[in-house]
Automatic annotation (TrEMBL):
It comes from Myripristis murdjan (pinecone soldierfish). The keyword DNA repair does not apply. SMART domains: TBC. This is Rab-GAP TBC domain-containing protein. GO terms for molecular function: GTPase activator activity; small GTPase binding. The gene is LOC115372816. Pfam families: RabGAP-TBC. Gene3D superfamilies: putative rabgap domain of human tbc1 domain family member 14 like domains, Ypt/Rab-GAP domain of gyp1p, domain 1, Ypt/Rab-GAP domain of gyp1p, domain 3. Residues 138-349 form the Rab-GAP TBC domain. Residues 1-42 are annotated as: Disordered. GO terms for biological process: vesicle-mediated transport. Keywords: Coiled coil.
Amino acid sequence: MKTVFSFSSSSSSLQEEQVKGSDAAACPQQRPLSAGRRKNLEFEPLSTTALILEDRPANLPAKSQEETQRHKLEYEEMVAGAKRRELKEAQKKKRQMKERLRQEESISHAMVIWNNDILPHWDTMKGTRRVRELWWQGLPPSVRGRVWSLAIGNELNITPELYEIFLSRAKEKWRSYSETSSVNDSESDCGASLADRESSLDLIKLDISRTFPSLFIFQKGGPYHDLLHSVLGAYTCYRPDIGYVQGMSFIAAVLILNLEEAEAFITFANLLNKPCQMAFFRVDHELMLKYFAAFEVFFEENLPRLFSHFQTNSLTPDLYLIDWIFTLYSKSLPLDVACRVWDVFCRDGEESLFRTGLGILRLYEDVLLQMDFIHIAQFLTRLPEDLPAHTLFTAMASTHMVSRNRRWAQVSGRAERRLTAASPPPHRRPTAAPPPRLLAAFICSVTGLRIYKVRDEISALQKVKILPRLFVLFQVKNVLFLVKISHYT
């Protein structure tokens, strides 16, 4: 084995022994010539590529002068190409290091400003132009959690002691759940509300296992698994009317990465109490339609070609906005980019969430214009993992959130009034689920699964709840889906 690995570096010495031992008399001038040539090399050949400069063994025809010269040129070209690649790689690393140092200096400088000038005078400084500009550039990680907490506030007046109370209730509920786990799903569903079912231990555990799986810190055995489980469990006891809804784990996880446990729970509860989040997590159809209608107004104004393309393909905002809003982009975007989006969300409120959506559409407009319904839905539910923050925020900066001298709040308010006036009576609202074939096609477009893997499961759904007018909530293999049915009914 040792001889095999050292062959390339000792090939010339092996050749010398062969020549000296058997054919030295036949080729008296060959070895001195080879040695003289090798002395002229700038360095000792370290790989088999250098063998092209060696003379052939004595029992083979000797190289011609032209062949020797050609091999020499080929070898020199190989060396030159390797040097060019090494130089290019070194220059790239140098640029990356320089950019990293610049970012570190910028973060360090911003951290001093936030700690010394802004946070001690939060109430008077938070609305100034200087602070808003610093906010847009991204919060330093060391102050991010504190700024989020201050910006979101604590209108619910939750205390750490209150968190401990609800956490104790959650633990007691889980113990009771474990003791009565013999009760089957059909029996528990008969007397349980939707919120009760969604706050079950199984669903929370399932969602936690799928929360930032690449980080390996929230899964079972990870350092933040129990902490995330505690925050989500405490919230389901604090707000049983809402319970646990798929997507909450991502929001709670981002807060846990930036705040202490009790503070993360307080911020989490207050964040979900905001009007936009409450509308989505309670599946308030009328309010959700209001947000979609307002989004389309700015969509058409900022990206008319793409808006027309989406309408041609019957692609409505709910097909991609629901997932984005439910997780505040923490599932759809790289974590560092999502934190930048959260920074702006804490500064500008719900408007920034829809501005971010328009920024994503603007960023990939040329790509989306070439796609059909299925491919657009798949693309928007699985955005590229290498999406850089600066390109997204450049696209967001080019997005104007003013329509006919009306800002977001005015447009969304007008959309709500218009929808309320046009709302059909309850007896005319569709209540039937879509056919399995069409539902399977839609799920495949969203999840990326093969249609033959989904269709059979839909025909034997474990849990189905028809929601008035717009959505059907159902479960396939312990995974909850919230699907729009207005296209299919």
